[in-house]
Design goal:
alpha+beta; 4 domains; four-stranded antiparallel β-sheet
């Protein structure tokens, strides 16, 4: 109870000091805390609250303290048909940007430190440790514009969270800046301003095309999607210059790989994950018939091959990950994050190589193991 009251005192202090929080009365924030929508988080000497559930117009993943408020990254609608989707949503010149298979972080200047936060508002120990390897100019940008938030994708075979990445990244990871937002505000910088900052500070970023027009340049966009499919890339995000709806579209390759990666882990993920990707894949072929034979050839093996092998060998559902850290303390912080998120892991190997702590670990998925195990043991279910 005492800790609860101390947290509310801290919340009031943040509210009094941070003008961005005063959009709503303190009592509303206090009520959100009492309902479990707000959680206190501490990272070294940094203290902040994060939103575990939506609150007013702030999405999940919003975090704040007395000096900053970073809004959660918004969900973007996904279109199923490129031609009609572009006409429906993009009624103005816009930009098409490579959608990269990885995980999303927001990087901010917090006092003397530069921290990376996950989509749900946790400090990401891995991205906080490694951003400087790929974005050395970011420190100068945040020194000059401390109110900016850099939105980045972390992608590559040596990341601690996701099992897919662009095939053109052969080892380790890369960081890609795809947006800038402002402290206390939910909107992004206009695309033309973003492009100037990316160039001025030499920041690594996705492939960007534009400005383009939805009807005039449809065939051009379609050719990009064809190329991305053949190269094993995820897709495109379409962004207006300023205000307006953003939308995304993914390649047949991306949908096939999602099915291949996730099917063995049913029980850990909602079965809708599978059905939605099958729908997307069907509608990919409605518009890109030239990929029909390839998809027909690969779909069954991608869905069933690995899963059947695991079942016959009675394997526990698990994945192997490999990561590199500059500082061991950040690896230990990642372990603490996994414990907090109740992720079951087992360390397989730890070595120092060329200045990096290289760690191999496995994630163990008990729900998926139980899901398939019960079926093999003859248990039934009502469907």
């Amino acid at each position: 109870m005492k800790e609860h009251e101390e947290n509310k005192k801290l919340l009031r202090y943040f509210w009094e000091k941070n003008p961005s929080l005063k959009k709503y009365p303190y009592e509303e924030w206090e009520k959100a805390y009492e309902k479990g929508k707000l959680y206190l988080t501490i990272w070294k000497d940094h203290t902040f609250f994060r939103l575990n559930k939506e609150f007013k117009n702030f999405p999940v993943g919003t975090f704040f303290n007395d000096k900053f408020l970073v809004s959660g990254y918004p969900s973007i609608p996904r279109i199923y048909i490129l031609k009609t989707g572009l006409k429906r949503y993009m009624n103005y010149p816009f930009y098409a940007e490579e959608k990269i298979e990885g995980y999303n972080v927001r990087i901010i200047k917090a006092g003397k430190d530069i921290l990376a936060f996950t989509r749900r508002g946790y400090v990401c120990p891995f991205a906080t440790d490694r951003w400087v390897d790929w974005l050395p100019g970011l420190a100068d940008l945040l020194e000059k514009y401390p109110e900016l938030i850099a939105c980045c994708e972390v992608a590559g075979p040596e990341n601690p969270f996701v099992s897919e990445w662009p095939p053109y990244i052969k080892e380790d990871v890369q960081f890609f800046v795809f947006d800038f937002a402002k402290n206390g505000k939910g909107e992004f910088l206009p695309e033309s301003e973003k492009l100037k900052l990316l160039e001025a500070f030499k920041l690594h970023h996705p492939e960007i095309f534009g400005p383009i027009h939805p009807e005039r340049d449809y065939e051009k966009i379609k050719e990009i999607i064809k190329r991305y499919h053949k190269e094993g890339r995820e897709g495109l995000v379409f962004k207006p210059e300023r205000e307006g709806t953003r939308i995304k579209y993914v390649t047949p390759y991306s949908n096939l790989m999602d099915l291949k990666v996730v099917f063995p882990y049913l029980g850990e993920v909602d079965p809708n994950f599978i059905s939605l990707r099958l729908i997307r894949l069907l509608l990919n072929l409605y518009e890109f018939e030239e990929f029909k034979e390839e998809v027909y050839e690969k779909l069954a093996s991608y869905l069933f091959e690995d899963t059947l092998k695991n079942l016959k060998e009675k394997k526990v559902s698990e994945e192997i990950f490999r990561v590199r850290f500059k500082k061991e303390e950040n690896f230990l912080a990642l372990l603490a994050h996994f414990r907090l998120a109740r992720v079951n892991i087992e360390i397989l190997k730890k070595t120092w190589e060329r200045g990096y702590l290289v760690v191999e670990f496995k994630k163990i998925y008990p729900k998926a193991t139980e899901f398939w195990g019960q079926k093999l043991e003859g248990w039934g279910e009502v469907d």
